[in-house]
Design brief:
Layout lengths: L7 H12 L4 H8 L3 H13 L3 E6 L7 E6 L1 H4 L6 H16 L1 H19 L8 H14 L4 E5 L5 E5 L5 H6 L2 H14 L3 E6 L9 E6 L5
Antiparallel strand pairs: 1-2, 3-4, 4-6, 5-6
Helix pairs in contact: 2-3, 5-6, 6-9
């Protein structure tokens, strides 16, 4: 988490990162501000799911609320997942070849299919498309879906959490398209634009129902 100036909000987050759990009074003391000011920031952070609270039972006196960073709050601090992932994939490709990288993403695709296909159970094609939109949005893809006059769907993803990986390893995009086909029970999923290749600022799929469905 890097900022040019250190705001009270950032100071609170830094304290929680270092101390793990803190009470309102201990934060107010550390920051030399009022408890009311601390609570105001914590209310906003809790609303945004950046911090969470729990009750701390003490040997004497009433239980008190303690605050800590949520999983989302932890992600505000610098991570190096992208570079680590790319480096590991490069090493795998160098040692065992691109086929091994493809195999890894095929395995990932299969695990995701097993995880999500129960959400498609007994759904018609239109409902499957919208359920896929929900699934992708849960993963941060910012999906918009439009049904065209010919019955096909335009499926646009405005964010790709793994775009940097996909730029170097296009097998990621291939695996995603195969996952879509499996979940929608159609062979007609065509990638028209892909942000990983720099074509557009979004990925766009044309989806058509299989005649046999």
């Amino acid at each position: 988490m890097t900022t040019k100036t250190t705001s009270t909000r950032d100071q609170i987050l830094s304290l929680l990162k270092k101390k793990k759990q803190m009470t309102v009074s201990s934060m107010a003391k550390e920051l030399a501000i009022t408890e009311m000011a601390v609570r105001r920031h914590l209310n906003t952070l809790e609303r945004d799911h950046i911090v969470e609270t729990s009750l701390l039972r003490q040997a004497m006196g009433r239980p008190t609320n303690v605050y800590q960073l949520s999983a989302e709050g932890q992600e505000l601090f610098p991570r190096n997942y992208r570079d680590l992932t790319i480096e590991l994939l490069r090493n795998i490709q160098e040692i065992e070849g691109l086929e091994k990288v493809q195999e890894l993403f095929d395995q990932r695709k299969e695990k995701m299919r097993l995880r999500y296909e129960k959400r498609m159970f007994l759904k018609d094609f239109d409902s499957r498309v919208h359920e896929l939109q929900t699934i992708q949005n849960e993963q941060g893809y910012m999906v918009e879906v439009e049904k065209n006059e010919d019955g096909t769907y335009t499926f646009k993803e405005y964010n790709c959490p793994i775009a940097e990986v996909a730029k170097e390893f296009p097998v990621v995009c291939k695996a995603e398209m195969e996952l879509f086909k499996d979940l929608l029970k159609t062979a007609h999923v065509d990638c028209q634009t892909c942000m990983a290749t720099g074509q557009e600022g979004h990925c766009c799929y044309k989806i058509k129902q299989s005649e046999t469905m």
